[in-house]
Design a protein that fits this description.
single chain, alpha+beta, five-stranded mixed sheet, two-stranded antiparallel ribbon, 3 helices, 9 strands, globular
């Protein structure tokens, strides 16, 4: 944990449903990404952040009831197979998930709130598709 992460941990350690990177919440652990159990805890944990933050939410909580913005399946169910055009004659083909993900990937946008909600496999598929589209455009 570097100095910035330690300061963030010290600021948020009283929040039971939020864990900054490389720390723990109540009955869960965060690794490289901050992790939250509820949206309210996520907003409290990001209070004062001026830049966007990618974070994880536990799918056993309220995040699991939401649909994945990429494949359209529920986050507390395995990912659904999808194909999507990314531009520059590039398309993403993602297989169906084999298991339910423990976490989903979200984005905190300062001044606007929380956006997204993707399965792990969907977030990687979209990232690799974006990289391929940029490579083709260059």
């Amino acid at each position: 944990m570097n100095k910035t992460e330690l300061a963030w941990h010290n600021k948020t350690r009283e929040l039971d449903d939020f864990a900054s990177p490389w720390s723990s919440g109540k009955d869960f652990r965060a690794y490289a990404y901050p992790t939250a159990r509820t949206f309210a805890a996520a907003l409290a944990g990001f209070k004062g952040k001026r830049k966007g933050v990618t974070f994880h939410m536990l799918n056993t909580g309220e995040a699991g009831a939401h649909d994945c913005v990429t494949c359209g399946g529920k986050l507390n169910a395995p990912a659904v197979e999808f194909t999507r055009a990314m531009g520059n004659n590039t398309r993403v083909e993602s297989p169906a998930g084999e298991k339910v993900d423990q976490h989903s990937t979200w984005r905190y946008v300062p001044g606007k709130g929380i956006a997204g909600g993707q399965h792990y496999i969907c977030s990687w598929s979209m990232l690799l598709g974006q990289i391929s589209a940029i490579r083709v455009a260059a």
